[in-house]
């Protein structure tokens, strides 16, 4: 029987669909850029800052969790900061065994030092390209594409959607709305989603994390989301998970293969789940939902894809087969053309898991 130790898990090919640029900076980078920008941090050294982020995020409250981004956004207001963060983002994914990633961020939050919305997107894409070139040269190739976010509690969602359309041939593959869910329903931005559909730009919507089924219903049935960011509260429509009897909304999501971008550690921190062992991701996987596993915010949550997988193995009894399933799920639902998705599955993921599965009793 193969032991799924940390190094084995790190080497497995991974795909991440839900990961925020401003939540995944290196602590040392935040410290250095903050010093240059004159921004005061709650801790002055990388280890202390990483610990502060993790402790602050463990509040059990989404609004307080989001408040930690004050310090990462402070260092993403210049071309130099964005270039460095984007390049390091790619290199960190590559070091974690990720072969495909979608990074998301809200350009409207990065305008305080004079950059325009298009300049923010162009700069991030430049940094991502530099990171991909370095990763490929080091023998750890990774493809990274971009989702642009609109902040649901502000009034610039339409502008962000226009940006996604404008840059759809330059590495931007989709759209999202982010921010506090409660009181800011997806349908308030229906015009933006209708515009994206007309322009053939796919989108996901943060829903079912801090708010319940109405949030998911609006995201899917009113706005037409192809994926759901988090979606933990979908279990409210499955009163008896053990019996597996689905309500109409849960059945719709499963049967139409709408991917759930689940983030176990982050969901624990925001109070959307009680523990990794009890996290709905396992039950939903077993019920045949198109579950994916993601990091959400690697700095803020103190996590990586390897760590998320390790927690699921250790605390929820996942096998290599389960990990392969959710990785294939992620690539099936990536906002890439079909032939590119299929090539990653057939040429990278399945061969990458084969040696481990051959030694597994469930292979």
Automatic annotation (TrEMBL):
<feature type="binding site">
    <location>
        <position position="179"/>
    </location>
    <ligand>
        <name>substrate</name>
    </ligand>
</feature>
<keyword id="KW-0378">Hydrolase</keyword>
<feature type="binding site">
    <location>
        <position position="206"/>
    </location>
    <ligand>
        <name>Zn(2+)</name>
    </ligand>
</feature>
<dbReference type="GO" id="GO:0008270">
    <property type="term" value="F:zinc ion binding"/>
</dbReference>
<feature type="binding site">
    <location>
        <position position="296"/>
    </location>
    <ligand>
        <name>Zn(2+)</name>
    </ligand>
</feature>
<feature type="binding site">
    <location>
        <position position="18"/>
    </location>
    <ligand>
        <name>Zn(2+)</name>
    </ligand>
</feature>
<feature type="binding site">
    <location>
        <position position="22"/>
    </location>
    <ligand>
        <name>substrate</name>
    </ligand>
</feature>
<dbReference type="GO" id="GO:0006154">
    <property type="term" value="P:adenosine catabolic process"/>
</dbReference>
<feature type="binding site">
    <location>
        <position position="20"/>
    </location>
    <ligand>
        <name>substrate</name>
    </ligand>
</feature>
<feature type="active site" description="Proton donor">
    <location>
        <position position="209"/>
    </location>
</feature>
<feature type="binding site">
    <location>
        <position position="20"/>
    </location>
    <ligand>
        <name>Zn(2+)</name>
    </ligand>
</feature>
<dbReference type="InterPro" id="IPR001365">
    <property type="entry name" value="A_deaminase_dom"/>
</dbReference>
<dbReference type="InterPro" id="IPR032466">
    <property type="entry name" value="Metal_Hydrolase"/>
</dbReference>
<dbReference type="GO" id="GO:0009117">
    <property type="term" value="P:nucleotide metabolic process"/>
</dbReference>
<dbReference type="GO" id="GO:0009168">
    <property type="term" value="P:purine ribonucleoside monophosphate biosynthetic process"/>
</dbReference>
<keyword id="KW-0479">Metal-binding</keyword>
<keyword id="KW-0546">Nucleotide metabolism</keyword>
<comment type="similarity">
    <text>Belongs to the metallo-dependent hydrolases superfamily. Adenosine and AMP deaminases family. Adenosine deaminase subfamily.</text>
</comment>
<dbReference type="GO" id="GO:0046103">
    <property type="term" value="P:inosine biosynthetic process"/>
</dbReference>
<dbReference type="GO" id="GO:0005829">
    <property type="term" value="C:cytosol"/>
</dbReference>
<feature type="site" description="Important for catalytic activity">
    <location>
        <position position="230"/>
    </location>
</feature>
<comment type="function">
    <text>Catalyzes the hydrolytic deamination of adenosine and 2-deoxyadenosine.</text>
</comment>
<keyword id="KW-0862">Zinc</keyword>
<protein>
    <recommendedName>
        <fullName>Adenosine deaminase</fullName>
        <ecNumber>3.5.4.4</ecNumber>
    </recommendedName>
</protein>
<dbReference type="GO" id="GO:0043103">
    <property type="term" value="P:hypoxanthine salvage"/>
</dbReference>
<dbReference type="Pfam" id="PF00962">
    <property type="entry name" value="A_deaminase"/>
</dbReference>
<feature type="domain" description="Adenosine deaminase">
    <location>
        <begin position="13"/>
        <end position="348"/>
    </location>
</feature>
<dbReference type="InterPro" id="IPR028893">
    <property type="entry name" value="A_deaminase"/>
</dbReference>
<dbReference type="GO" id="GO:0004000">
    <property type="term" value="F:adenosine deaminase activity"/>
</dbReference>
<dbReference type="InterPro" id="IPR006330">
    <property type="entry name" value="Ado/ade_deaminase"/>
</dbReference>
